[in-house]
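Anyone? Bumping this.
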Amino acid sequence: MNRRRAWMRMALAGLGAAGGLRVAADTPPRATETTMPPLEWPAREVAPGVYMFTGSGEDVTPANRGVVANAACIVGRDSVLVVNSGSSHRQGLAMLASIARLTDRPVRHAVITQQGPEFVFGASALRAAGAALLAHPRTAELIADFCHICLARLVDTLGEAEMRGSAVTVPEQAVTGDTVIDLGDRRVLLHHPGPASTPGDLVVIDERTSTMVTGGLASLGRIPQLRLEDYAGWIATLTALEQRGAARLIPGYGPVGAPAEALGRTREYLQALDASVRRALMRGMSLSEARASVRLPRFATWHGLESVHVDNVQRRYLALELG
Amino acid sequence: MIPRALSSAPASTPDAARRRLLTRAAAWTAAGTVAPWLAGPARSAEAAPAPWDALRERLFEQRPIGDGSALLAIEAPQRAADGSVVPLAIWSRPGADAEVRRLHLVIDENPLPVAGVFDFAPGHGAIGIETRVRVETYTWMRAIAETADGRLLMVSTYVKASGGCSTPANKDFAMAEADIGRMRLRVPEQVAPGEAVVAQLMVQHPNSSGLVMDQLARTYAQAHYLHRVAVDYAGQPVWRGEVNFSISQNPHFRFRFTPRASGLLVARAADVRGGEWETSLALSLQTARATQRSAWHRA
């Protein structure tokens, strides 16, 4: 009977695919203006000297101008450290403008926590302003090898004007083990937990305020994205980070809050995804069927359920079917 | 029925591989309708705004091609984040009256636009192939069916794929030589005589084109891909596929067939370097507790 239902779904999905013929005309809306309105990306203080740049959590669209993921900065007596940089050169410039309103200290360090496009493309502006770019060597390698693909995709979605000045920018300072950056009156710890959401995840911890900052490793309100993930390593890392007992966490996506919230919900998603994909495989569902039907009601209100999640289903399916 | 002869000379370059593919294709299809497009130009000459017009001419000359949407459903995601694995399914619609004998899968913008040609045994009625393909860019994907009464019918869908931001780097996921050619056939647990079942065949294989640079070594790999797949049941052909590196790594085919009595489901695959593999599954209808035997040979 299951098979019959699967066939019915297939027939219905086929009708949907016929509707897909319209897609050619439905090309992504492009921002065609040659000059863009100025981009503001305000910094909000979430702990003394720790500021958050908030992303919308949505998929990248011209309406949100690529401001979808969070970033952060930590202001010290001597210098400023930035964590992540947004989706465009323009976003990097907007960060610098907001930081200039907070302090006259220079941005000396920018930490790129992973290779995701919504975290890396403001780095060109930060480097031009004199910041050293720090990342795990695997992250730097992946940026060098693959980010041109994501850049082309962002240009396609957001338009040349929005992306002007954006370039693949490879961090030059390698961070492999725990590294302390001294900002004069406060120490910031850069921690590589091992392969997790990506091979080279970094977590930034401001010791004075006990504030933890991550990239897409932790996500709240937006489906976490599988990107060359180490599934078991990721889940173990979420638990280990929770046990560090930080006061607050700025996740890659979603609001600042108690670390257990974003870390726990991310872990819950990963476990639910894994269990559902295993069930789909056990029932003999094809990759197309799994993509079309594996949904997680508990995450129904999160951004990316019909985009990021569907790609996650595929990645997990392909990883598990060989086993 | 199944051409099994394999050349002992390994393909040393993509060009050599393409020539071998041509030779095989010509041997494979007595009608010779396949060879002209395989001989067609690669990448550079595909720059025309509508590659399909030229492809259509090469593949089917002036034969009329009708709308196939009453006969077939084509299904692929509209957006694919990972262009290296894009699921593509073509199935007969329930109640469709025409019998599909051959199915051409065409990906307009790929270096080799014809991703596969599948032949189905006469009398099989409803057909279906679901596989996973590599897609280079935004492109039309098409399935053109040749029916038993000689008509050409097409269905198509547009896919926005942008390759491999999350495609594994080679060095992290290099396939062990010993794993290459491991095959697996699967059928549902319950199979009743005369009832169509969906079976799947998976072959562990890099299925590489030789067109992609190894990011670590900064060299181009040798072409190493499956070019022929055949499935038989109870001594009769179910389908034959002539395929290439447009099929993703670890080629995977789901297909429909209708067993009428217990028998042996046999799958064979051959690659351009002379590797040939075979696996079989004994189906005892009602229980279908199947025993799988695999073998591989290298010429």
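Late reply, but here is one note on the structure posted above: The longest strand of chain A covers residues 43-47.
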